[in-house]
Design a protein that fits this description.
With 449 residues, the chain is mainly alpha-helical. Helices cover 49% and strands 7% of the residues.
Length: 449
């Protein structure tokens, strides 16, 4: 059995004792048990579970480091307060070792500012004027906490699930860097540190453990956090990761379901009967709207207009952040998509803010029931199918982008196309039971064989 893996109720679990150097105030558990979510019968050797356990361990140790770094946050807060107090005094804040190197006139100006009223009797004001608060030492383990503080307004717009994914990705990226170079002050990272970290990623890519895109995403998250904290605290920061991105493999686009497959396989009588009702309805809504699974799963009753002259749904940032500003749009409902939405006029509470859970469940169902056109087809392939069918109409590129919610990289003007105009194009490509769609040649050959 791989190290730090145990068994519980048919599931591999991560197991370890609390390290001696970690106090109970930071980690109250003596014996730590965390489920990997991997079933033993599906992974008898524990290979997948071991990879999951490594991630769990990295995140767990990162959380310990973050909790241990609360003192650093207090130092950073004290420094910010001193800098703000100096600004009120019309003085640039400088630590004492820098302030004493100023000109005589500048030093006199600092001392004169303290002679107003009772300022010289206020220790906080004296420290702000004379540089009595040192620059805070922000370790790599404390960088994310700093980022969350000054990005609080933007993060508050994310849903709990979006925030969890945002935080977990960056926590994991930073914990990996710390594992390689140590938990040092963020502004002391060197080019050699960066090269060591990229070498670590390169070895994993060469061994086939991860794809280069995963490594580059982690590098991008780290450089973004470091740059943000450096700007916030007015600290110089060398671009140590500049030019060190790994060369990515040419990615293959996700294939679309053919219209024939959707009609004769997915919409075949009984094909989706074993799927739970919400999953089935979301699949059907996707077929004739092309909406993202998460957009449908997060619909609220006020955004579902079934009694309108043109029944439609509205994609809006309700308690969450949309992928882009262009995702904000209205989509007419026709055929099976309208029928499915009528069964759920209040939306889909089971999968609200659980887009990943939804996709995983539907993809597993497709795989288990032979509903994938190829092994690379997924739930998202329905969205690609919608776009492919649009290409067969006279819809302009602007109309296609608006229906798909794609970022056009252009300024967004006006209210967009009318529901009536959108409806005309969607009716041309809508799929439902009984539509006679010729089988693609590849499928004819499969059947013949």
């Amino acid at each position: 059995m791989p190290e730090r893996l145990g068994r519980r109720n048919g599931i591999w679990i991560y197991v370890r004792r609390r390290p001696e150097q970690i106090p109970a105030a930071i980690e109250p558990r003596i014996n730590i048990r965390i489920s990997t979510g991997v079933r033993i019968k599906d992974d008898k050797a524990g290979v997948k579970a071991a990879r999951k356990a490594a991630i769990i361990e990295s995140e767990l140790e990162a959380s310990w480091r973050a909790k241990a770094g609360h003192g650093a946050r207090a130092d950073a807060l004290a420094f910010e307060q001193a800098r703000e107090r100096a600004r009120v005094l019309a003085l640039p804040y400088k630590p004492a070792e820098e302030a004493v190197r100023e000109s005589i006139d500048d030093i006199h100006r600092r001392l004169a500012a303290l002679e107003v009223g009772d300022r010289r009797h206020d220790p906080v004001t004296v420290a702000a004027a004379l540089g009595g608060v040192p620059l805070p030492t922000i370790l790599l383990s404390g960088v994310l906490a700093e980022v969350e503080i000054f990005k609080a307004a933007g993060l508050a717009k994310k849903s709990p699930e979006q925030l969890r994914k945002w935080r977990n990705g960056r926590t994991l990226a930073m914990s990996r860097l710390i594992d390689v170079v140590g938990d040092k002050p963020f502004d002391q990272l060197s080019r050699e540190d960066a090269l060591l970290f990229v070498d670590w990623w390169t070895e994993r890519v060469v061994d086939g453990e991860v794809q280069s895109g995963t490594a580059n995403r982690g590098l991008t998250q780290i450089t973004g956090m470091l740059s943000a904290v450096a700007r916030r605290h007015r600290r110089p920061l060398d671009k140590v990761f500049s030019g060190l991105m790994l060369e990515e493999e040419t990615s293959r686009p996700r294939p679309p379901f053919s219209a024939w497959w959707i009609v004769n396989r997915l919409l075949a009588p009984g094909a989706l009967d074993a799927m739970n009702a919400e999953e089935r309805a979301i699949v059907l809504v996707m077929i004739n709207t092309g909406a993202r699974p998460s957009e449908i799963a997060n619909l609220r009753a006020p955004r579902i207009h079934l009694d309108s002259n043109i029944p439609h749904i509205q994609v809006r940032p309700d308690d969450r952040v949309l992928k882009t500003e262009f995702s904000w749009r209205d989509l007419p409902l026709v055929g099976v998509s309208l029928e499915a939405m009528r069964a759920f006029p209040d939306g889909f509470p089971r999968y609200r803010d659980k887009g990943d859970t939804l996709s995983k469940a539907v993809n597993s169902f497709f795989a288990d029931h032979g509903l994938r056109e190829t092994e690379r087809h997924t739930l998202y392939s329905l969205r690609h199918s919608f776009k492919d069918r649009l290409r067969g109409t006279s819809a302009t590129d602007e109309m296609k982008d608006e229906l798909m919610g794609h970022d056009t990289k252009k300024p967004k003007y006006g209210a967009g196309h009318s529901l009536h105009l959108k409806l005309g194009f969607i009716e041309q490509i809508a799929l439902a039971h009984g539509i006679d769609v010729p089988a693609p040649l590849v499928l004819i050959r499969k059947v013949a064989s």
